[in-house]
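Collaborator request, handled under Task 6.
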Amino acid sequence: MNKELWKKCVNFHGHECPGLAIGFRACEIAVEKMDLKFSSDEELVCVTENDACGVDAVQVITGCTLGKGNLVYRGTGKMAFTFFNRKSGKSIRLIMKKFTSEMSREERQKYILEAPEDQVFSIKKPNFTVPNTARLFNTIICDRCGEGAPEHKIRINNAEKLCLDCFEKYTRGW
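Structure tokens returned to the collaborator:
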């Protein structure tokens, strides 16, 4: 385990925890098996199926971020991370295995970081293809609130262009 990289992840996340360890370990495995380097653009993609602590480790280690469009949130709730290398075509999906025994928080974190990888994760080929690269959208001004939103997030209601907030508020009574 790269202790300096772990410290960097802890500093970014704010504390040590088993959740951060899950993302850290998933990245370590992906980096090793796919020979990954830190992503300066969109050459590497991570699809995370959860929005938990481990995603912070993904950002620190891989350079995948929501802002660059190469960290994609797919809200299945599974503790799963799928990595794609657009240049090499390599990919891997890591799914956290269920714990079979009771452990304290500290024991769980240590287990995640140190147990053999096949005891911690199921390692498979992805069951979906690499997402498209990030797209740029035109900004449309909402006819109700005057705020701009990307065109794919605008809804038309009685010939009005509405942002999602106004669409919900005026068509569903929120």
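The cover message to the collaborator said: "The mean pLDDT is 92. The CA atoms of residues 17 and 117 lie 18 Å apart. Please let us know whether this matches your experimental observations."
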